[in-house]
Amino acid sequence: MTPTSTPSNGSDAVQGGAVAGSAGTGSSPLKSSLGEAGGHLKQAARDAGDAIKGASGAAGDQLRVGKAHVKSDLADSALAGITAAEYASAAARERADEWMDKGRDLVDSAAELVRERPIASFGAAFAAGWIIAKLGRSRR
């Protein structure tokens, strides 16, 4: 094993309380190895920080895109709702027009019946009035 290589387990590194290959100038390779490991750790921390910054930037971009999609979907929903309301309004107008036509037809047929049978119409109106008057008096 060379002094600069890292052992796979701790049993090769320690021999009799001393680090393998630490005869005289062995601490210099140890210091350089530790310094190199520290440098790699610093670089790893910088890389991790850059990765986090990049991820947060990408997440912000995704949020902006998602926000735009939500706004677009809400606008589409509002337009569909307005269109549905317009159709419902048109259908209600048609139904109201039909009822108005039926009401006019009913009034016209009643007027025609009064013209054809005036005495019967007068008698029916008199009877209806008398019944309403009786009902009104009995409730007091």
Q: Could you walk me through the main structural features you see in this protein, from its secondary elements to its overall organization?
A:
There is one protein chain. The chain has 140 residues and is mostly helical. It has one domain (27-128). Helix content is 79%, strand content 3%. It is built from two helices and two strands. The longest helix is centred in the middle third of the chain and has 90 residues, at 27-116. The chain is rod-shaped and about 135 Å long. The model is unreliable at 1-24 (pLDDT under 50).
Secondary-structure class: mainly alpha
Number of domain modules: 1
β-sheet strand percentage: under 5%
Shape: rod-shaped
Helical segment count: 2
Low-confidence stretches: 1-24
Short structural description:
This protein is an all-alpha fold and 140 residues long.
Please tag this protein with its features.
140 residues, mainly alpha, two-stranded antiparallel ribbon
Topology:
Layout: E1 14-15, E2 18-19, H1 27-116, H2 118-138
Helix pairs in contact: 1-2
